[in-house]
């Protein structure tokens, strides 16, 4: 069931989204060669704590997960697509790092992700990151009243495929509100004109993921969480929480 948010609720979600943006900025600021992934998590956690916000990631345990998620950030490096656990691994020159963060403030959730490189960046990684961001922008531009979920999916997928990248099977965006994952699902590829009609007050997390090799298949690593590309090629991820309004899409996780 899709929950339509009131304008007051959207303002409350904006407050949660702002905390997410600040936590992502702090984690990104902390990221440097030699810094451990756990230190990025600590930087984000300090922002959540300072804002009086909780984490929808910490302790999260969907049916398929063998253990609760142990951190406030997902940190996914190089061939990791999403859901990486921030551990003691230290960042190296040229690492491609995706960080995904959520916050719960006054009962409302925000969810966003960014990808960046550490140290010397490969031009191919810069293109991969830019494509994920362009796909997110295209998806958000399609998130208007009267369009359908399929229009967002189509807009996202077209940008990724035009660049020759793979789109991981079985992963995509979602409704967001008092829970991190609500209806509807927002696939990263689809047919225009299909799916649920978008209405004022719907809030969606739109989150393109791209795989450099052009292949779509992934697997879950032995930690039970980290999703990696099947062929070891690199992946990027970009996400915002977006409210659909009569005045157009509003990015609730913007800085
Ligand atoms: Mg996310
Ligand atoms: Mg999400």
Helices and strands in order, then pairings?
Elements (H helix, E strand, L loop, with lengths): L6 H24 L6 H15 L21 E5 L2 E3 L13 E10 L2 E10 L5 H19 L7 H14 L10 E3 L6 E5 L16 E4 L2 E3 L6 E3 L6 E3 L5 E3 L2 E4 L6 E2 L4
Antiparallel strand pairs: 1-3, 2-10, 3-4, 5-6, 5-7, 7-12, 8-11, 9-10, 12-13
One magnesium ion binds next to loops.
What are the key terms here?
single chain, 255 residues, alpha+beta, Creatine Amidinohydrolase, five-stranded antiparallel beta sheet, three-stranded antiparallel beta sheet, 28% helix, 23% strand, globular, binds magnesium ion
Task: Give an overview of the whole structure.
The chain has 255 residues and is α+β, with helices and mostly antiparallel strands. It has one domain (7-251): Alpha-Beta Complex (Creatine Amidinohydrolase), CATH 3.90.230. The chain is built from four helices and 13 strands. It has helices at residues 7-30, 37-51, 123-141, 149-162, and strands at residues 73-77, 80-82, 96-105, 108-117, 173-175, 182-186, 203-206, 209-211, 218-220, 227-229, 235-237, 240-243, 250-251. The chain has a five-stranded antiparallel sheet with strand order 6-5-7-12-13. A hairpin with a 6-residue loop joins strand 5 and strand 6. Helix 1 runs antiparallel to helix 2 (37-51). It is globular, with a radius of gyration of 17 Å. The mean pLDDT is 98. It binds magnesium ion (2 copies). One magnesium ion binds at residues 100, 111, 113, 207, 239.
């Amino acid at each position: 069931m899709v929950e339509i948010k009131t304008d007051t609720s959207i303002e409350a979600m904006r407050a949660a989204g702002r905390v997410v943006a600040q936590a992502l900025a702090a984690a990104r600021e902390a990221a440097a060669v030699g810094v451990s992934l756990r230190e990025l998590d600590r930087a984000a956690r300090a922002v959540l704590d300072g804002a009086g916000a909780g984490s929808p990631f910490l302790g999260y345990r969907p049916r398929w997960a063998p253990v609760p998620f142990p951190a406030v950030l997902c940190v996914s490096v190089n061939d990791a697509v999403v859901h990486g656990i921030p551990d003691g691994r230290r960042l190296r020159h040229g690492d491609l790092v995706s960080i995904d963060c959520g916050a719960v403030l006054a009962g409302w959730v925000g969810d966003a992700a960014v990808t960046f490189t550490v140290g010397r960046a490969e031009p191919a990684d810069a293109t991969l990151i830019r494509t994920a961001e362009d796909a997110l922008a295209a998806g958000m531009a399609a998130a208007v009243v009267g369009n359908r979920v399929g229009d967002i999916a189509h807009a996202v997928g077209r940008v990724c495929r035009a660049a020759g990248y793979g789109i991981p099977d079985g992963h995509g965006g979602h409704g967001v509100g008092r829970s991190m994952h609500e209806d509807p699902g927002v696939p990263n590829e689809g047919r225009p004109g299909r799916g649920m009609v978008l209405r004022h007050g719907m809030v969606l997390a739109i989150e393109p993921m791209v795989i450099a090799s052009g292949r779509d298949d992934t697997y879950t690593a032995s930690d039970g969480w980290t999703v990696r590309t099947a062929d070891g090629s690199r992946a990027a991820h970009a996400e915002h929480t977006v409210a659909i309004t009569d005045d157009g899409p509003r990015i609730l996780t913007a800085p």
